[in-house]
Amino acid sequence: MNALRFDVASALPTDWREGLFLGRIDRGAGPTPVLISSGTVYDMAMVAPTVADLVATGALDPSKGEPIGDLEALGVDVAPSATERLLSPIDLQCVKAAGVTFAVSAIERVIEERARGDAGAAASVRERLEARMGGNLRAVQPGSEEAARLKAALIEDGMWSQYLEVAIGPDAEIFTKGPPLSSVGHGSPVGIRSDSTWNNPEPEVVLLVGPDGRAVGATLGNDVNLRDFEGRSALLLGKAKDNNASAALGPFVRLFDDRFTMDDVRNAEVTLRIEGQDGYVLDGTSSMDQISRDPTDLVKQALSEHQYPDGFALFLGTLFAPVQDRDEPGRGFTHKVGDRVTVSSPRLGSLVNTVTTSRDAEPWTLGIGALMRNLARRGLLAA
How far apart are CA 103 and CA 57, in angstroms? Predict the structure, then answer.
């Protein structure tokens, strides 16, 4: 396949000139926060040196920045040698994720658990579980009396699971997907562990939340998941989720305004396409109107007895469940190196990445200390 490039027409929504977008570009000296308004890119580094600072101070006004050109004419690209290199749109924010927020994903997690991470055993487990539960789970309100009754019935049948607890119980699953500065952006390789044999992408909407707990916008994300690791034990969640290049976000954060609101997130259609170098193609869809918990409730649960002084990004979960066989009948889907993964939504654009292993992905070297040293050299840390 051809090397990935950044193309405005395919990466951004059709109404992108009417929206306000937030992101980061490396202009040669280091990461620079930018705003895009009416098609023009504004360098915001002299207003606030990081995206986290821009959000925390509420300085999301492009007129305060330096206009550097129209996005289509600027020549932004994803190659390391690009003059204007596109980066992940967040920086100092912790990368959080909500899991098992859709009924289908809950069922798939139970399957992983019962199959002990063995893809070959998944088909028979799926058949037994769906026959036992029917469509009940999809209609249950988490934390409700009906949920408690269903839990009691499934326990009696020997079919209860820790994944069903977070699917229909009062408490959502909120975990740390990755530390600050660890996410990759549009066009960068996305990583799976080299020792994983059963894994998949998770196409999601991601909220950007400020330190005051207010969601300021949304972007697209790929929450790469290792089904074999997490299926063997939920205690391996860290290894299944937090690996080099395993969290992709972008291309930009679309900020909320009169034309784009939380209701657009609630009603978003997120599509997925996987194109393998072997000719394999898989298409999937995640409809946010099927989510079991409202996005604002997930933000609230993430903030319960926890503060995020630099804000956080929150993956909202996915309806997508990859059960289409790739190689052997009954073994479902797993990635191969070189797969091209495209996550799209009409109001947010498209996030495109190719699959590599976390071992072979570009090493993560720009941590918080390195970023602060870079900003100091550029004179951006002055009061």
Answer: 38
